[in-house]
Design goal:
- This protein is mainly alpha-helical and 504 residues long.
- The chain has 20 helices and nine strands.
- The strands form four sheets. A three-stranded antiparallel beta sheet has the order 3-4-7. The chain has a two-stranded parallel sheet with strand order 1-2.
- A hairpin with a 3-residue loop joins strand 5 and strand 6.
- Helix 12 crosses helix 14 and helix 16 crosses helix 17.
- The protein is elongated.
- The N and C termini lie far apart (75 Å).
Amino acid sequence: MTSPTPAVVRIAPSPTGDPHVGTAYMALFNWLEAHSTGGRFILRIEDTDRTRYDASSEQKIMETLGWLGLGWDEGPDKGGPAGPYRQSERTEHYRAHLEKLLASGHAYRCFCSEARLEEMRAAQKARKAAPGYDGLCRGLLPEEVEQKLAAGLAHVVRLKVPKERTIVFHDELRGEVKIEGQTIDDQVLMKSDGFPTYHLANVVDDRLMGVTKVIRAEEWIVSTPKHMLLYEAFGWPAPAWRHMPLLRNADKSKISKRKNPTSLTWYQEQGYLPEALLNFLGLMGYSSKDGQEVFSLEQMLADYDAKRLSTSGPVFDLEKLGWLNGEHTRRLTPERLTARILEHLERRVGRGLVVAGTPETDVLAWIQAHGGFTSPAVRERVRATVPLVQERMRTLMEYAGLARCFFVDSVKGYPPEDLIPKKGTLELAHQMLTTARETLAALPAWEGPGLEAALRTTAEAKGWKVGDFFTPLRVAVTGAKVSPPLFETMHLLGRETTLARLAP
């Protein structure tokens, strides 16, 4: 079997806000392509949209991709032979290549004002015509262009699309794709502010950085003919194209923050594990050989075969992600889960996300009072509680609610009616608590199995159903109807605390 040709791939997010989950989706499949072929994975920051540029966004992009474990070989922070890796620092490349396009007649200067373009769009809309530039400046004579330049008129540079041609390219997932030139707009390549648009910068950078395969979302299929024309105009071979299916909402619309959280930062802050999120995104566009649904990044890489990529629009189902996150949570050792919980809580404190009056507040108050996140006492307490809550956790965010009873002096505050067993009364619940307290106080040793055995014997002697008897005990000891295992909780809390909580 011949070895695959090493693929040079890239992702090129724009720093215009919180990093998008779609960026992670594309980064994953580019990372897999690079690592499965022994190639290179490049991170390029496409920051030429200066009106929407967010100075903090670039750092967030790198932080969240690092959190996911999708490291890159070349990028703004690492450098590399084709740097710099921020487009705002590469403008001389674009201007030089733009001059080549102008000289060869593949591009032209457009002096249309914004007011004229607005009138054009309104007229097209009124007659229900396809939107797009009408080509007014395509026919300007060289002397007319020079006169306008001499007068200092603002202008853009547009791609001169051959309207009579059919542009054909091969997509690795979809086969041959044909798009008629008459349907393609004369795309702006350089804006009036001197910065390139995505299309010019993208093609020039991919060529100069040695990108051999472009793996991106299917929404860019309509732009690929423009890119093919640019490669042709420069006399360059085009890279291989692979357009991945878009992430979809349940109604099949493109994923958007109106219907699903799209910020990678949100998933990090809500306590999703990076390995679970990668697993989920992997399932969005790929199926493993054996149909396995729960896997690590390493397992996915070992199994990876581009022939099993899907073209169907995957539904971004938060319930499925929650299930996967729970599966990955249960795979962690208690020591590793302890570390993850503390890292998560510390991150939320650092970002000012903690809401007063929540279980998280109570847990953090105990941590602060006992030496902070690096204290051995804190780590040991969390480590001791993890086996009792791990099976019930789906996200790290849920830890505080499940484990709160181990970090507060009192769990009072629950509705009294929560104590009432099925078909019972509050008076019966109080009688059960008193009886249980007397039984436990008389025990010579305090250990889980002994606690349970003694209380079961008591229930039988009193003629109470065990489930009914344990209901008020659970609420009184933990403060909640849904809690960690009752007897393990009692054992960890100790005799004094447990008996105090069972008192009327």
